[in-house]
Amino acid sequence: MAVYTEISDDDLSALMAEYDIGGVMSCKGIAEGVENSNYLLRTDKGQFFLTLYEKRVKEGDLPFFLGLMDHLSLKGVRCPVPIRGRDGVILRRVAGRPAAIVSFVDGVSVRNPGVSHCGQLGQALAGLHSAGKDFALRRPNALSVDGWRPLVDACLGNADRVRPGLSEELGSELSLLETRWPRHLPEGVIHADLFPDNVHFLGGKLSGLIDFYFACDDFLAYDLAVCLNAWCFEADGAYNLTKGRALLREYCADRTLTAAEVAAFPLLCRGAAFRFLLTRLYDWLNQVPGALVKPKDPLEYWRKLGFHRAAKGPAAYGLE
Amino acid sequence: MAVYTEISDDDLSALMAEYDIGGVMSCKGIAEGVENSNYLLRTDKGQFFLTLYEKRVKEGDLPFFLGLMDHLSLKGVRCPVPIRGRDGVILRRVAGRPAAIVSFVDGVSVRNPGVSHCGQLGQALAGLHSAGKDFALRRPNALSVDGWRPLVDACLGNADRVRPGLSEELGSELSLLETRWPRHLPEGVIHADLFPDNVHFLGGKLSGLIDFYFACDDFLAYDLAVCLNAWCFEADGAYNLTKGRALLREYCADRTLTAAEVAAFPLLCRGAAFRFLLTRLYDWLNQVPGALVKPKDPLEYWRKLGFHRAAKGPAAYGLE
Questions:
Q1: Residues in chain B where the model's pLDDT stays below 50
Q2: Does B30 reach chain A within 8 Å, measured CB to CB?
Q3: What's CA B291's distance to the chain center, in Å?
Q4: FRET pair for A244, CA 20 to 30 Å: which of A139, B71, B99, B109?
Q5: Per-residue model confidence as pLDDT tens digits over B134-191
Q6: Pick from B47, B201, B203: which is nearest to A23 by CB?
Q7: Which candidate, B45, B10, B2, B7, places its Cα nearest to that of B27?
Q8: What does the DSSP 8-state code read for residue B78?
Q9: Distance (Å) from the C-alpha of residue A264 to the closest C-alpha of chain B?
């Protein structure tokens, strides 16, 4: 995170005058969030999250992201609720940046999710997909199969520095995925980045989903594959079948997968692993020395990809 | 800030079990503080500040800093109050780092302090000096006159990149300061870094002083000089006599300056400006590309130094 906009007390006072959410008690810039400048804002009425959107987020996408959170929260999904000013407006400008205030989702994220966490995630993900059904706006997934080749091309020259032979593997894997990627599966709004960082728990119970800035339209089961990769593997790279089963069972309790989704699931997992291998590899190869956020290990996802390439079918995941 | 220790939910749970401050509602790493990893910790009983001390803070100094905050808060100074665990202990270890929890000081810092802010600061600074009188621990000021030559030496080769002729000016200024620096003035515990960042206001009223990690023993009037430099100059480099008078008047209302302090004040201001010119210059010349915190402009303090060099005596500051 090389960009961070500081908000002055005068900017903050001017902003707060637009809202009816109480007087400022404190406002601290927080260290997470690679894409934006985030502030934890506490007033005498509660705790909020103020985001100033930096260049990596397209301003044209903000009505989708904020509209989605607004829509989902009205449907009962526990997620940040965009706060409207006295004028009814959610998105405004602060310190020259687009900015919005959302409610704060209590809880902390878990570093090593257990079976119960995975089950609760499955239930919450199904709830998210169900609540998103009648959301009116659309945003194609720029990081699905059609978006992978430019990233592969950008990494090819240097990928072997991370692991000898990786460039060739990326090329052949991409060709296979492009050929076999499904064309027709149930679609809808997906979170697309529901890692443990983006799920809060309070006293062991899921208290909310956060960070909707990768949300888009895509196959619903692809979102489930992203979660399986992020939640159901152990630190040593092994797939934890018990956690995977808990995730899938609780998801399917709310939304039954179609036969086509079940059949495609191993390939979706493979594609999801490839997508995070690619973006992590890109960030690894283009890292900024001394930046606050250390790039994540791309090879974690290379190992997960290996599991999916060897998987014999849906049963390997606990899908019957 | 290139170092940041992430605290896991398991580390946090283990830590909280040592305290009687309620259950965790949220815990977010915050983006300020160049020296340490800071977390805003909210429980059902209140808001706290959890600090993991990184390498730039000497572990041996922590009993001084934490003991000082404890001492000052007992004397009624509004500052972070170190929280004792059930075992009575303040300083412990988290994620391999020394760590402590302190109370959160409500309020926000002001970017452009007005006359009223300066007056309130003067009053609070005098209160701090008075409350610190009987604090038992000692910590010499490593960044006073004896500590400047190594920094000058480290900058000499490159200072002219920032401003032609700066190396020569640094050398002659240092010689003058070393020769004329006072030897006997009233001493005590000083904050030593009481910039607007480190003072909180709530509804226009000073609500507390924070960040005691430069606190040390030195001339009390030197602390006042640091504040005058940080609070009473305008963005264009001009000294604001009205703000300076408010600061000095309110400070002196609580603690009368001795004749020797008044006589030495212009030189103390000059030394204080030199000290921040030096450390900012050093950080500027040794900056880490892409780091979250942008180094501050050293020449701001070069301009302030120019004012002090030209000042005819205490009256130039509003000291009668």
A1: 1-2
A2: yes
A3: 21
A4: A139
A5: 999 999 999 999 999 999 999 999 999 999 999 999 999 999 999 999 999 999 999 9
A6: B203
A7: B7
A8: -
A9: 35
Taking only residues 179 to 238 of chain A, the set having a beta carbon closer than 8 angstroms to any beta carbon of chain B reads 200-203
Residues in chain B with CB shorter than 8 Å from the CB of A112 are 8, 10
pLDDT digits (tens, 9 = 90+) for A11-20: 999 999 999 9
**C-beta separation of A183 from A205 below 8 A:** no
Q: Copy the structure tokens of residue B288.
A: 């880490």
Measured between CB atoms, does A8 come within 8 Å of chain B?
yes
Sole residue written with tokens 């990893």: B37
Q: Is the pTM of this model over 0.80?
A: yes
- Interface confidence (ipTM) of the complex: 0.86
Cβ separation of A106 and B8 shorter than 8 Å? no
Question: Which CATH architecture describes the domain B115-317?
Answer: Alpha-Beta Complex (3.90)
pLDDT score recorded for residue A2: 38
Q: A21: which DSSP letter?
A: S
Share above pLDDT 90 across residues of chain A, in percent, rounded to a whole number: 88
Domain range list for chain B: 9-103, 115-317
Q: Which residue has the tokens 């690679």?
A: A34
Could you tell me the CA-to-CA distances from B147 to B140, B177, B193, B229, B274 in Å, in that order? 11, 12, 16, 20, 12
Tell whether A26 is within 8 A of chain B (Cβ): yes
pLDDT score of A265 more than 60 = yes
Euclidean distance between CA atoms B64 and B55, whole angstroms: 17
Q: For domain B9-103, which architecture applies? A: 2-Layer Sandwich (3.30)
